[in-house]
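Illustration: 2-dehydro-3-deoxyphosphooctonate aldolase.
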Amino acid sequence: MQEIKIEIPVPTGDPIVVGTGQPLLLIGGPCALESEEIARTVAEKMQEICNRLGISYIFKASFDKANRTSLSSYRGPGLEKGLMILASIRESMQLPVISDVHDASQVKAAAEVLDIIQIPAFLCRQTDLLTEAARTGKVVNVKKGQFVSPWDMKNVVDKLRGVGGRKIMLVERGASFGYNNLVVDMRSLPIMRSLGCPVVFDATHSVQLPGGAGGSSGGQREFIEPLARAATAAGIDGLFMEIHPDPRKALCDGANSIALDDVEEVLKRIIKIRTALA
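Result:
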């Protein structure tokens, strides 16, 4: 496996190192911020679990999901309130946070709070958004579009590096397979890693059925763990999961979220696979 490492600054203490020979990174939290109470419940429990299991953890939640299926779908609290919640969690728990930006105008404000700026899959080719994020000097986490081949992510990486971006992570989250369905090509993991970036597998969005519920997306939660296991065996640096206390009541992507109470046992099995490969 190619030697790849990047450092993610944390609020205090030593940075998180992601890459070759490093502990697994988990990026996890609710799809969209619903309330500070729910966000903090997930963050506190996941921080405790990851500390106990010896893996790195970054809390994630979107302040605004601008790409929801319908106009009536819940998007989140918005930029200002959402960043306030993320800043509160970051400061009180000394926990790094990540969220996605959908427009270049959001990047400056987001960079004042976030430790990692995420580029959504649908926007991974948007040059102005990519370059604005890279110029902040923050770690940029780019989700591979459902319509983009893994080798074409080189163009995305080149855009980021072309304006000075050096801390880049790439995320596999499934590719369009006909209508309302995704499939994961495990070849994409080593192909994207060959671009010199740590690779993260989004185990929950990869089981999404885009628009599959008519006015919203569906999902096949039962396949989260099998795909996460397969990706771990193929070689990844990090795992991305939508995590909610009660996915049935989640306001966004509940059908492809994992229940908070189920995460620890799944991670234990993932770690066994990763340990066997070491």
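Reading the tokens back as a structure: The mean pLDDT is 93.
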